[in-house]
């Protein structure tokens, strides 16, 4: 019987969840979404492809990192609304550097969360800073701040791997990024742009925040939509660095905003 991708039950956006599993160990590696085209490309190339809901485009797992997934088997459930894709994983599946995206273990008795497994690579070394350099700014390593795509590779295109498999594309990304910034503050890893800011101190952080705010104002005056989005991401990132230095969490700022809200 020849398989017809049209027999599957896609949601109203034409998507179907795909659970990715290590074919040798049975470890669940990640979950992302495919549309019909992504499934067809996965079948044709023998490597996983997904659909990014945030960017509205196809993305190839491992395109940036080299951590591709060689497809061994694809099955679907009795309701035909979920895929199970067994793969041979090259390197680590998670954009945070862990073998599986499911590396946060919740203890139901205590409510505590622990990280399981060892980090297999440093996201900064794999993805790098300045993935999408800003116009008029030097490349990473020459004093450039991270681009919106990089953001300490605290997001991913392969960023999409993180967004699609772990984090909804909404304000929660700020909390995720803040946690990574706090980790950089504590560990000060070599080569980290964020760690360099903490090493140079508050004055440097404020200088960078001011620079990015000025860039945002210029692009807003120019009505360049894409540049405004990128500069806004830079401003938010540098603001979070300053908040981390001050010991202020995003939740405290959210609470302040909520307190200012007035019902009509």
Question: Could you describe the 3D structure shown?
Answer:
It is globular and about 65 Å long. It is of the alpha+beta class. The chain contains eight helices and eight strands. The strands form three sheets. A four-stranded mixed sheet has the order 2-1-6-5. Strands 3-4 form a two-stranded antiparallel ribbon. The protein has helices spanning about 35-45, 125, 160-165, 170-185, 195-200, 200-220, 225-245, 250-260; strands at about 15-20, 30-35, 50, 55-60, 70-75, 85-90, 105, 115. α4 (about 170-185) crosses α7 (about 225-245). Helices cover about 40% and strands about 15% of the residues.
Features:
264 residues, two-stranded antiparallel sheet, single chain, four-stranded mixed β-sheet, globular, alpha+beta
Q: In a few lines, what is going on in this structure?
A:
The chain is built from 8 helices and 8 strands. The chain is an alpha+beta fold and 264 residues long.
Note the quaternary state here: single chain
- Assign the structural class, choosing from mainly alpha, mainly beta, alpha/beta, alpha+beta, or little secondary structure: alpha+beta
Sheet having the most strands: 4 strands, mixed
In helices, the fraction of residues equals 25-40%
Distance between the first and last residues' Cα: 61 Å
The 3D shape can be described as: globular
DSSP summary, beta strand count: 8
Mean pLDDT: 83
H and E order: EEHEEEEEEHHHHHHH
Strand order of the largest sheet: 2-1-6-5
Please give the count of helices.
8
What fraction of the residues are assigned to beta strands by DSSP?
A: 15-25%
- Alpha-carbon Rg, integer: 20 Å
Could you name the ranges where pLDDT drops below 50 across 5 or more consecutive residues?
129-168
């Amino acid at each position: 019987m020849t398989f017809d991708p049209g027999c599957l039950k896609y949601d109203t956006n034409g998507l179907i969840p795909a659970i990715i599993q290590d074919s040798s160990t049975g470890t669940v590696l990640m979950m992302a979404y495919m549309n019909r085209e992504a499934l067809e490309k996965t079948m044709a190339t023998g490597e996983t492809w997904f659909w990014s809901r945030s960017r509205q485009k196809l993305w190839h797992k491992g395109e940036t990192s080299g951590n591709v997934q060689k497809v061994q088997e694809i099955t679907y459930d009795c309701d035909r609304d979920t895929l199970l894709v067994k793969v041979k994983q090259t390197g680590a599946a998670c954009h945070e550097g862990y073998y599986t995206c499911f590396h946060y273990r919740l203890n139901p008795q205590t409510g505590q969360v622990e990280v399981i497994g060892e980090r297999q690579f440093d996201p900064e070394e794999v993805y790098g800073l300045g993935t999408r350099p800003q116009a008029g700014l030097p490349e990473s390593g020459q004093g450039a701040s991270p681009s919106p795509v990089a953001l300490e590779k605290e997001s991913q295109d392969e960023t999409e791997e993180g967004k699609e498999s772990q984090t909804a594309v909404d304000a929660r990304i700020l909390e995720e990024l803040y946690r990574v910034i706090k980790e950089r503050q504590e560990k000060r890893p070599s080569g980290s742009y964020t760690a360099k800011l903490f090493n140079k101190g508050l004055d440097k952080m404020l200088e960078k925040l001011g620079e990015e705010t000025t860039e945002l104002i210029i692009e807003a005056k120019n009505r360049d939509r894409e540049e405004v989005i990128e500069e806004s991401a830079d401003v938010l990132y540098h603001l979070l660095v300053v908040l981390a230095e001050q010991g202020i969490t995003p939740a405290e700022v959210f609470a302040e905003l909520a307190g200012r809200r007035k019902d009509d």
